[in-house]
Amino acid sequence: MNMKRKVKILKIDELTHDVKRFIVEKPENYKFTHGQATYVSINKPTWKYEERPFTFTCLDSESHLEFIIKKYPRHRGVTEKLHTLSVGDELIIRNVFGAIKYKGNRKRHLYQRRARRNV
């Protein structure tokens, strides 16, 4: 089941002329791991069904969600519209997806195992 959750924009930082950081509310019991993403849309009548995937740029342990989003004005789409929003506006986020998980340095682990066998 694809749950939709409305979240308010808490803070917007302009990082460059075409990149902004969006800090938004984190719904209760909303969990993710590094490398995962969610579909985001803008909670406005003409934009709420225009979903785009964005990766989280914060840690799950934080009390908010963070996205860093580059504007692509030639596309005349969601990223351009996101850059016109203000604090207090709402986004709609969906379930978390993605299977990218950090598993540590595998080569280092293999070298350590081989070294232990040779001792």
Structure write-up:
This protein is mainly beta and 119 residues long. The protein has one domain (5-117): Translation factors (Elongation Factor Tu (Ef-tu), domain 3, Beta Barrel), CATH 2.40.30.10. 14% of the residues lie in helices and 37% in strands. Strand 1 (5-16) and strand 2 form a beta hairpin. The mean pLDDT is 87.
Stated plainly, the CATH topology is called Elongation Factor Tu (Ef-tu), domain 3
CATH class membership: Mainly Beta
Tell me the series of helices and strands, N- to C-terminal. Answer: EEEEEHEH
Report the principal-axis shape: globular
Number of separate structural domains: 1
Number of strands: 6
Radius of gyration: 18 Å
Superfamily (CATH H level) name: Translation factors
